[in-house]
Each structure stands twice: as C-alpha cells, then as structure tokens.
Specification:
The chain has eleven helices and no strands. It is mostly helical. The chain folds into two domains: 53 residues, Homeodomain-like (Arc Repressor Mutant, subunit A); 125 residues. Helix 1 crosses helix 2 and helix 5 packs parallel to helix 9. 18% of the residues are buried.
C-alpha cells in the first residue's frame, strides 16, 4: 500500500511540474499564477504548495538531481561540465542536441532569462551547492570555484541559445570558455 501511495505522490508531483513547465514556456514565468497551474493540473493550489514551496521551485524542479550528480562526480566533474549540453544529463551528448531538444532548451532558457526572479533563484540554488560539494571534495575553496564554473557554464550556454547559435558553435564556445583543466590546481602554491 505504501508503495502505491508513494508512486501516486510522485506521479502527482511530476504532473504538476509538467503542467507548470508548459505554462511557463508558453506565457513566461511571471505571467503564470500558481492558481492557474493548479487548475490546469486538476489539483488545488494547496496541493501545488505541498509539493513545491515556492513558484520558482516549479521551474527549477530538476536542480536537486543536478546537485546530486555533481556531488557524485566530484572526482571527475569536468565531463559533467563539457560533454553534454545539459549539466547533469549524462545520457544527452552534444550530438543529440538538435531539433526539438534544442528548441525546447532555447525556450526554457528564454523563459528563465526573461524573469528576474528565476535568474536570482538560479544563483541561490547554485550557491547552495557549495556546502555539499565542499563536504564531497574536502575543500570549500574548490567547491566555491566549481560553483563559479557552473554559473559561467550556465551563462555561456544560455547566451549561445538566446543568440540561436548552432549546437556545434555553442559547444565550441563553451569548451573554449571553460578551457582545459586548470594547471594551477595541480601546481605548488606561490612562495
């Protein structure tokens, strides 16, 4: 019985998230209300807030999974930053990034960039990753640097999408911006 209840809760959460995503992409984040999301998902506004404490949490529904993937990949995080168009989505490579997937990501990015609330929340989310990454890596400085690289990667990727650059051009620019592994991390400190 408990397994059925948990599955139903997960399905309801996903249905609310899917409806919210479609509405945000169609009308923009600021123009959509939680009441409209609830109505479209056939649930109450209270139910929406039971699953998502703030409206921004509906937009950034996958960020916890991204953080968890980063923490798990601390020993080899560079491929996570460079090998796919979507951070944390290891099953999606640059060669897969075209057509409908490209257009959906472009719309998602445009929705986020049109909203000051979402841009601010993105920074709050990524900054909240410093502590678990510091624990996983053993270094708060390294964790803060990684979060800075993640924010740089996100902005570089977003600018390419917003400018409607080709996936190959975005990948090349991203690789050039993030660059090769930092040699300074492996060199002795200044004396």
């Amino acid at each position: 019985m408990n397994g059925l209840r948990e599955r139903k809760k997960a399905e309801t959460r996903q249905a609310i998230s899917d409806v919210a995503t479609r509405l945000f992409e169609a009308r923009g984040f600021e123009a959509v209300t939680v009441a409209e999301i609830a109505a479209a998902a056939n649930v109450s506004a209270k139910t929406v807030f039971n699953y998502f404490p703030a409206k921004e949490d509906l937009f950034f529904d996958a960020e916890d999974a991204v953080r968890d993937a980063l923490v798990a990949a601390v020993p080899d995080v560079r491929p996570l930053l460079l090998d796919g168009p979507m951070l944390g989505a290891l099953e999606c490579r640059w060669n897969d990034f075209h057509g409908e997937l490209y257009e959906r990501m472009r719309i998602w990015t445009a929705t986020e960039h049109a909203s000051p609330a979402l841009r601010a929340r993105r920074l709050v989310i990524t900054n909240s990753w410093v502590a678990p990454l510091a624990i996983a890596s053993g270094s708060s400085g390294w964790a803060a640097m990684l979060v800075g690289l993640i924010n740089l990667r996100n902005e570089t990727f977003a600018q390419g999408l917003l400018a409607e650059r080709s996936p190959r051009a975005i990948e090349r620019h991203l690789r050039a911006t993030i660059g090769p592994p930092l040699a300074v991390l492996h060199s002795p400190p200044f004396r």
